[in-house]
Structure formats: structure tokens, C-alpha cells
Design goal:
heterodimer; A: 112 residues; mainly beta; five-stranded mixed sheet; four-stranded antiparallel sheet; 9 strands; 0% helix; B: mainly beta; seven-stranded mixed sheet; 11 strands
Chain lengths: 112, 115
Amino acid sequence: DAKTTQPTSMDCAEGRAANLPCNHSTISGNEYVYWYRQIHSQGPQYIIHGLKNNETNEMASLIITEDRKSSTLILPHATLRDTAVYYCIVRVDGLWGQNFVFGPGTRLSVLP
Amino acid sequence: DAGVIQSPRHEVTEMGQEVTLRCKPISGHDYLFWYRQTMMQGLELLVYFNNKAVMDDSGMPKDRFSAKMPNASFSTLKIQPSEPRDSAVYFCASSLAGSSYNEQFFGPGTRLTVL
């Protein structure tokens, strides 16, 4: 499975959009991009996933570049409760195991 | 639904003792995962089940760890004998098989401290 690289940390002002980038330059055609987040002391929480089209749900938007080598998770109006570690994962749909790897993620701090 | 339930939430034990962690997945979910999280290694997948059968346990130390799923609503992760390096937060997650929607739902975790 493709590996991902994310910035170690980011800050965002409360109420502003948080844009979290992820590089996955070796992604293959059948691999999806997944985003999870982990708020301190809790289990990870699913946010959104996509294959090649941009996706939006009640939590966030996912923008995937045309070549699929990178993506951006957008939290449109960040709140203090969005402070968490955000993980970008790529995997082939339907497969789990060691192919589903949580890297170090991006630690997002939403500042008042 | 109550979500994924794990017990105990905290466990403190001494080196050499047996430790059993428990997990109840979301009803109807057919995948169950055990993860371990430490500051040094991050979140690691230890083992996962599909319909109660072990699908991949390559991340699990076999000499001291064992995982079982005797029925669809219960799983255990046992460590015997426990060592200080096993100190970590252990998460259980479950998922419902589907074509493209494979969200994993995580439990609150068990914080294990081995002295």
C-alpha cells in the first residue's frame, strides 16, 4: 500500500478553515484516501474518505488532486473541539490488515 | 447503539501477571480489530477478525499475546506473561463489511500499565 506524508503539526484560528495536506505520491488506482482523527485520550474517529472525486460530509471536505498524488482535508469552520491528531491513510478498498497503517499524523491545534 | 465497549478502562498489573482485555463490538459488525498505541510506536494493528476468524495477526507478538473471538459479540486479547514494554493503550474497533464504506468504529481504549 502507498505511504503517506503529513506535516507534524499545524495551528488554526478558531472559526477559520483548517486545511490539512497529505502526500501520497505512490498511490495506486484502486486505493482510497481515508481520514481519521484522534482527540486526546479517545479512540480514533472516522472523518471522510474518497477515491478520486472530491467529497463532503457534515464533518469535512476532502479535496483530491487530479493525479491523486495528494489530498487536503478541510474543516470549514474549525472549533476548539477540532484540536486533535489527524491521520491520512491510503488503502485498497476491502482489504485490512497491515495495509491499514496509521502514521504519526498531523497534530492540529485550534487556537482561540 | 452503545458503540464499541471495552473493559477494563484501566489496568495496572505487575510484570509476569496475566492480563485479559475485553471487547464487545457494535452489534452486526463482522470485522473486529485490536490496536495498540504507544508514544514511541504510535497506533499499531495487532490482529483483526472477520466473522470470528483471525484474518491477520502478523502485528501481534505470538509468544505472549493471544486473541480470541468465541462469538460475534465478544473478543479477548490476552497477554501472558505481561512485561513493562506492554504498557500502552489498547483499542478495539469494529466495522461492517461493505463495498466502499469501511468505517472503523473505535472503543474508548484500555490503558494498561505493567510495573
